[in-house]
Specification:
The chain is about 65% helix and about 0% strand. With about 450 residues, the protein is mainly α. The protein has one domain (about 15-265, about 355-430). Helix 6 (about 125-145) runs antiparallel to helix 8 (about 165-200) and helix 8 packs antiparallel against helix 9.
Length: about 450
């Protein structure tokens, strides 16, 4: 899913500096994904060390910024800067915006390196080993009840004196441990697709490639089902559906997905307002788990606040200052009773929906700019000179990312933004022509029917 298509001329083989930078990023990514997902910014910084020297990097940055996604991103940055002036906490918003801008610049530099060089020989195998190591460590943590993360974060069951029974204290320890490693499951979903793209690229006609991918997929599904991240399996399923459909319409599908995502973004406040009572959609609210009831209440409350400032929004990163703990979540239980959750509000820091967060903080202009960015990315994928399997993998990653953005996490969190850039970098590397693909680039896929 690179910001722009790679250069038509074959890229040179990576320099030693770039190779070592990518290797360091890959090695550090293994423990970071599992035990410290917030540290993806470290991996991104290491990737940025692979950027070419300043003249080449400057030209690459200029070229990327001139693409439709680059122009949309720059326009969004300008609107973010303007919206700081009407944020509830301008100083805090300015600091967050500056941090976001620096992260974007690091991401662009890292992407410049990904577009400048071919991957060294054996890169697909190294990425496969790293992904397999992540799965193996996850399996170890699942089997041991989160022993390693408990040791790292010093989660000691003896500290939980509110539980008189030792079994309860141990169960609570495991709950905290699995929550601590759960976020990495989201990164697994994103990382699976560039791994698949590189393996297919390096071994396009090998039956072993299909077997390896099937084993990786099965192991990934097993891990995700053990982790407390309900959005991750849904995102993987959405990606798999897009991957399969992309073989029938390799160029048209990413365009359609981008158009659907843009339309959903623009309509999201109305949808969020309507789902407060899911009975209208044939679903009894009391039958929904409290965690998802809370998500529905958050979205409905956010939609109401959007209507107060639909044109300008509440200002960049203003979501965390809107509620001020003035509300309380009350869950409806299947037995007809209600239960109030102390200190659980209807807008905790962010609305857990990227589309609603854009509307809430940046208003209609922010929503329109972001819709343009989504369209630019989707149409950019369609324009890449890639064989159908690689384009299908990029489409799947795009779809899975959109699914996760709509269901989880604050849009401006450093680790989450860094994850987007890492995905772009991996596909930027995977999209570079290789010896196995040089002759197929002239015929990147069958025409859509």
């Amino acid at each position: 899913m690179p910001v722009s298509a790679p250069n038509s001329a074959p890229a040179p083989t990576a320099s030693s500096r770039a190779t070592y930078a990518w290797l360091a990023a890959l090695i550090t990514a293994v423990p970071i994904i599992i035990f410290a997902a917030n540290g993806t910014i470290i991996t991104l910084g290491l990737c940025a060390l692979a950027a070419p020297a300043w003249p080449g990097c400057r030209d690459a940055l200029r070229q990327m910024i001139g693409t439709p996604p680059g122009l949309a991103l720059c326009t969004l940055a300008v609107w973010i800067a303007l919206s700081i002036s009407w944020s509830a906490a301008p100083a805090d918003s300015a600091i967050t915006a500056l941090r976001l801008l620096l992260l974007w610049l690091v991401g662009l530099a890292a992407l410049a390196g990904a577009r400048a060089y071919r991957l060294p020989h054996g890169a697909a195998g190294a990425l496969l080993i790293a992904y397999s190591a992540i799965l193996a460590l996850y399996a170890l943590e699942i089997a041991s009840g989160g022993a390693l993360i408990s040791l790292i974060k010093q989660i000691d069951p003896d500290r939980f004196t509110q539980f008189p029974d030792a079994a309860q204290r141990e169960a609570y320890r495991q709950l905290l441990a699995f929550n601590a490693i759960g976020r990495g499951g989201v990164l697994l979903v994103l990382l699976f697709w560039p791994v698949a793209a590189l393996l297919i690229d390096r071994h396009p006609a090998s039956g072993k490639t299909g077997l390896v991918l099937a084993l990786l997929l099965g192991a990934t599904i097993f891990v995700l089902l053990q982790l407390p991240v309900g959005a991750a399996p849904l995102a993987l399923l959405a990606g798999l559906a897009a991957f399969g459909l992309a073989f029938a319409a390799p160029r048209r599908l990413p365009q359609l997905i981008a158009m659907a995502a843009a339309a959903l973004l623009l309509l999201m406040p109305l949808i969020a307002y309507k789902i407060d009572r899911p009975e209208a959609f044939g679903v009894e609210k009391r039958s929904i788990p409290p965690s998802w009831q809370h998500r529905i209440e958050i979205w409905h409350y956010t939609a109401n606040r959007i209507t107060e400032k639909p044109l300008t929004g509440w200002g960049f990163d203003g979501a965390r200052h809107i509620d001020a703990k003035a509300t309380q979540f009350v869950a409806e239980l299947p037995d007809g009773s209600d239960i109030a959750y102390p200190n659980v509000t209807l807008l905790p820091l962010h609305p857990h929906n990227g589309a609603l967060q854009i509307w809430l903080e940046l208003g209609l202009p922010g929503a329109l700019i972001t819709a343009a960015l989504l369209l630019a990315l989707g149409f950019g994928i369609a324009a890449l000179p890639l064989p159908t399997p690689q384009r299908a993998a990029a489409t799947a990653a795009f779809t899975a990312t959109l699914c996760l953005i709509l269901l989880s996490f604050g849009l401006w969190q450093n680790w989450w933004q860094a994850s987007f850039w890492l995905l772009l970098i991996l596909f930027g590397l995977a999209s570079q022509p290789t010896r196995s693909r040089d002759e197929t680039d002239a015929h990147p896929g069958p025409p859509d029917r």
